[in-house]
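Q: Could you fold this chain for me?
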Amino acid sequence: MQNHLETQTRDSVPLESHQTLEQQSQEQKATIASLQAQIAELQNHLETQTRDSVPLESHQTLEQQSQEQKAAIASLQAQIAELQNHLETQTRDSVPLESHQTLEQQSQEQKATIASLQAQIAELWVLKSQTSNSISLTTYQALQRQSQEQVNTIKTLQEQLAQLQTVARIGETKLNKWRNRTFSR
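A: Sure. Below is the predicted structure, expressed as structure tokens.
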């Protein structure tokens, strides 16, 4: 019996040790089940992600196209702003062609009037010098008054002509500037 007891003691493990191993086994089974559940979940997630995603190369190509399109949009917007600026400047710095032509016509008419008046004055001076000293004082004074009025008219017309020529030059300069900008493109 002692032999049997020794054999049994030798072949047996303390209960506490056995229970600890059993508890560890249960915990390991639970850990294995948890890890298997995590693996299954990750596999499902991977399958979903694979099904719902596109290749990286395709995505990068689209990103590059998007960047190029953004650059093209920015470039076109800059061109539009530049053209609008140019149009505003051109509109602000130009005079309507009709207005310029009217001023040119007025200037030509005034030049003709001045020439005519200068010819009349020259004629009157010739007549004045040809007349004898016997011309009455009243006639002389009337001619002198008429001459002075004509001189004043000529001065007034010359001043108006100078003003209109300045305006016409400004208009012509702006028109030429506009023509150069418009037709040089």
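A (continued): DSSP finds five helices and no strands in the chain.
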